[in-house]
Amino acid sequence: MGSGELKPGQLLPPMRELAGELGVNPNTVAAAYRTLRERGVIETAGRRGSRVRPRPATTARGSLRIEAPEGVRDVGEGNPDVSLLPPLGEALAAAARAHAAHPTLYGEVPVDEEFARLARAALDADGVPAGPVGVASGALDAIERVLAAHLRPGDAVAVEDPGWGSVLDLVPALGLRVVPVRLDDEGPLPGEVARALRDEGARAVVVTARAQNPTGAAVSGPRAAELRDLLARHPDVLLVEDDHGHGFVDLAPHPLAGATKRWAFVRSVSKAYGPDLRVAAFTGDAVTVDRVLGRQRLGPGWVSRLLQRAVAHLWRTGAVDGAAVARAYGERRDALVRALEARGVEAHGRSGMNVWVPVADETGAVARLLHAGWAVAPGARFRVRSGPGVRLTVSRLSPGDIEPLATAVAEAAGPMPARSYG
Fold it and tell me: CA-to-CA distance for 157 and 168, rounded, in angstroms?
């Protein structure tokens, strides 16, 4: 592979066949394949065999982006509206004052008491089962630590498709296998989750509670009930829920947490309070949280208590009017979805700040939109097996942008694909 003789995506020979060709024990070939899989060089899909990965496990899907040249509006970057983020000066000053009164030194507990109390109260209000609170450096850091606490290289993880590109990158980078699960506007389809558990042997399931990236899906009450019943029949499966929509989505979450013995529920503050805060609260069963915090102590030790105290100050003072922020995003998102539907274009955006548009020709649609003055996110950043599409972020849109953007998308989208979503 290093010499380039094996091409990306090329199917590798069965282990016994290769062992016979090389004149070595099949166990030797099995060990070599396992090492290559753990290092992200090859991927294995059960009876379909092993292949050279199309790209290195550490190649981020975020590199599949369209740079907006001068004069082109960027609606693909996925960032929040800066005008809706709270000023951080007073929160950081309050954290500095607390630090002056009681500096955090080595050996102290990793979670600030007020941060834990406020995080737990919000979790209780949303029906998340009781559990200790931990802090990670963002949602992805928490998800990585939870997966690493329970899984081994080669284990399968059920992930939404289309879904958050960073999770789709993270899973193979950990030596794990992605099992794509289709979804609709109400979350992962139960039949797809059942297939992943039954046929693919998934040992973990990652679900987005609301504001799903890129589709805007949000797990509804009836869907949550179905998924909880399903997961309860697989008590040893690890369940990870990402609720990054807390603070800027007005749809209440319907937690699946507690349906299995091992679970984690993660809430970052990036979208509602600012990406650079790099703070996420998480809870879970006692074993999971203890393992994550124990491993964290051996690495970074803890997430800065200055940042924890700043976030706690923002929470305590109500620095963000969640209802107003949700309304601002919702008005833009809903207006764009309606404008697209009025032009005969399928569009999805139940919650959050993104709209997902299935298209027949993704590359062509992206190019035509760029020519029309709009840079969008290519669906390839978010897909495994699902149909092509583009993601539009509404954060920077004004009311006057909606109609021109919808017209440009309608002209670029092409005929509707046969099976686009869900």
Answer: 10
